[in-house]
Write the structure tokens for this entry.
Amino acid sequence: MNANTSKYAQLIKAEAQRLGFLSCGISQAGFLEEEAPRLERWLQNGYHGQMQYMENHFDKRLNPTLLVDDAKSVISLLLNYYPEEQQNPESYKISKYAYGQDYHFVIKEKLRALLHYIQTEIGEVGGRAFVDSAPVLDKAWAAKSGLGWIGKNSNLLTQQVGSFYFIAELIVDLELEYDNPTTDHCGTCTACLDACPTQAIVAPYVVDGSKCISYFTIELKENIPNDMKGKFDDWMFGCDVCQDVCPWNRFSKPHREPLWQPHPDLLSMTKKDWDEITEDTFRKVFKNSAVKRTQYRGLQRNIAFLK
């Protein structure tokens, strides 16, 4: 490594902070040896349900050099989404990450700005930005970069701020100084396993995605299986239970991203309001939201299932 690797890494981390990212860690791009057998087992067990896309690009998921020519570094970034105010507790619930504007667009803009900064300050650097939309094992890279550890609920956890944040990456062909992984601080705690309404966490660190409320309410396109009736704990889009009960999340602090302020109606809506929601109201409340992914019909299906 040349003397500049450390200087460049510091520059990038300082700019990431200026752009509003919670933290930034860097690891060497290469094949994820430990993840390969784990991903293979997970797929063989059918834990991806109907998320067929999880089977695609197996090699690319494990090797960023197949996504970016001559990739040298994976820059992992966290962006907080923990809201200051939450929904009316008597209402049907949506996952906190979907309160504001769709995170893909908000984060993509910040990543573009960071890549532009790198190219301006450092020179000709090739790279790509990724936000949960390409075959990148973002939690594995974030853990490798020392940003947290993968907890028993399979989310990335951080002692200082818990887990209510998005993970994104820049994969670049620039050599940098690399960070070391942190240690696991789940200890003997089983709060997430005990609290999961559908027992989707089948063993510590193993989630059967096809049993997760988020899967049923967002990914599944057909009818929700009847044997899940009464187990959804009023979640109509996504689910935060395994994060809400995690002791590390008592350190969550509200985000400062204006685009993630919820539509004012969202927080006050009651079950009756949701039962009677029209397509116009759906469009207004979720104008640029990730909830649009399930569409009006999908949300209606989920609400009907909760009754």
